[in-house]
Amino acid sequence: MLAFILRRLVQAVIVMLAVAFIAFMLFQYVGDPVTNLLGQDATPEQRDQLRADLGLDQPFFVQFAHFVGNAAQGEFGLSLRQGRKVSTLIVERFPATMELALSAAVLALVVGVPMGVHAALRRGSFMSQVMMTLSLLGVSLPTFLIGILLILVFAVTLKWLPSFGRGEVVGLGAWSTGFLTADGLRHLILPSVTLAIFQLTLIMRLVRAEMLEVLRTDYIKFARARGLSNRAVHFGHALKNTLVPVITITGLQLGGLIAFAIITETVFQWPGMGLLFIQAVTFADIPVMAAYLCLIALIFVLINLFVDLLYFAVDPRLRIERPAGGH
Q: In this structure, what are the phi and psi dihedrals at residue 42, rounded to the nearest 5 degrees?
């Protein structure tokens, strides 16, 4: 186990360096921050002075080395758009994105897994067919369209829920949350449902397919032959062995929820990292864009490591020590 963790940590460092290098190299050619800050009427002296102040007059690899060293300490420089520390901006926006992503992930799991189990165990029923049809719609419809439709129905027509913003939040030190206020929860419903629909349908279809495959295996037939009840067979054996691929997909999708919440945050004007990234792209705010991509890469690396560790808890076969020289 220790060797496995150390190996994955080394791989994580290599991945993070590669992502940082690619992001930093690409963003050197995205717009000119000096022109954005000073405008077209600035004198050459003013441009040269600002370029020196920002460190843009140094060689590429010197800039990259400074970037990596500062990033390792949680510092990504100053935002070219707002003139504030990038780390401060991310700390302010990160709780909103995590709150939205975790709500969507929990909703997708709580609803998607039972629906997948029902669709597998009652695959010929009318309700199962309705679920499969709805899942096709959930997979096919783009996220921004789902968000707009939900706003039209529940915010504009019925006026039940707010259509934008995060609502009232409570500060817990550096962390802010809307879970502790009624207004914050009301503002969270529409964006979290919008973000969860695609993941929910994906999990439902995955659970159904994996469970149908597991139910055909020999050990399930042996369990039935031993006289076990359907409940014990379905939930004690079949569902447990279905969870390994579900954990993989769910873990990766959690990273995807954080990374690709950009559209949902834009539609609902949710003040998270996705909206910050869109604003940074519009302004060619290189430090913010580079920091965002590195942070998302780090989240994916940590989630993958966590998912691999969960394998050992879910699948006992992975905990069996291999003999030396074994295959």
A: -70, 150
CA 139/CA 303 separation, integer angstroms: 23
Residue 239's contacts (CB-CB under 8 Å, 6 or more residues apart) are 117, 211
- State the CB neighbour count (10 A cutoff) for residue 184: 19
- For CA atoms 19, 37, 54, 84, the dihedral sign is negative
Average pLDDT, the chain: 80
Q: Which domains does the chain have, with CATH numbers?
A: 2-72 (no CATH), 93-318 (1.10.3720.10)
| Mean pLDDT lowest among 35-49, 77-91, 187-201 | 35-49
- Global confidence as pTM: 0.78
* C-alpha to C-alpha distance for 268 and 275, rounded to whole angstroms: 10
Identity of the residue numbered 130: V
> Tokens in use for 94?
């990160």
The residue among 165 and 30 whose pLDDT is bigger is 165
CA distances from 282 to 55, 109, 289 (A): 22, 35, 10
- Report the residue count for the chain: 327
In the chain, DSSP finds a helix count (H) and a strand count (E) of 14, 2
Residue in 209, 196, 205, 210 with CA at minimum distance from that of residue 253: 196
